[in-house]
Amino acid sequence: ALLSPPCASLCLQEALQILHHSQSEACSQLCQALIVHLAPPSTDPSHSSLLAGLQDPERSRLLEATMKWVGPEQLRDLFLQLKGHLLAVANHRVANHGLQRLLDHAPEDVVQEVLSELGPVLQEPLTRGHPGVLTALAGACWRHPVLQPQALCCLLQV
């Protein structure tokens, strides 16, 4: 019941932030519960429930909020559900924001894989009006200096 009304979604997002700042274990538990509910694991490898969740305007806001507060291992797990679909995510009018949140908090190995998959085709999301994907990827590479030369090459190609 707390997932669909917009004001309830905002309340859940704020609760996540408060729990994170209080360093409560409940934050991690709530994030995990939301992810499982909003993007349940799929037995079909060709279907990503996370991708479907990020494309849905209501579910995507909560998924984005959880990406801010989960740890690196959980972000890696989320990334694995998007791997191979990154261009579709980057080109989607709603889902691209979820990719940006993932990049805002992703560990170096995840950023490296995103850069490898999206780097050669960065022009597509840019021409579709999603410059935030490029900005988030550049920001993630700025946090991980070893990725900066590869990122610069990709940016210069765009």
From TrEMBL:
It comes from the Eukaryota. GO terms for biological process: endonucleolytic cleavage in 5'-ETS of tricistronic rRNA transcript (SSU-rRNA, 5.8S rRNA, LSU-rRNA); endonucleolytic cleavage in ITS1 to separate SSU-rRNA from 5.8S rRNA and LSU-rRNA from tricistronic rRNA transcript (SSU-rRNA, 5.8S rRNA, LSU-rRNA); endonucleolytic cleavage to generate mature 5'-end of SSU-rRNA from (SSU-rRNA, 5.8S rRNA, LSU-rRNA); ribosomal small subunit export from nucleus. Keywords: Repeat. Pfam families: PUF_NOP9. Pumilio repeats lie at residues 81-116. GO terms for molecular function: RNA binding. One of its GO terms (cellular component) is preribosome, small subunit precursor. This is NOP9 protein. It comes from Eubucco bourcierii (red-headed barbet).
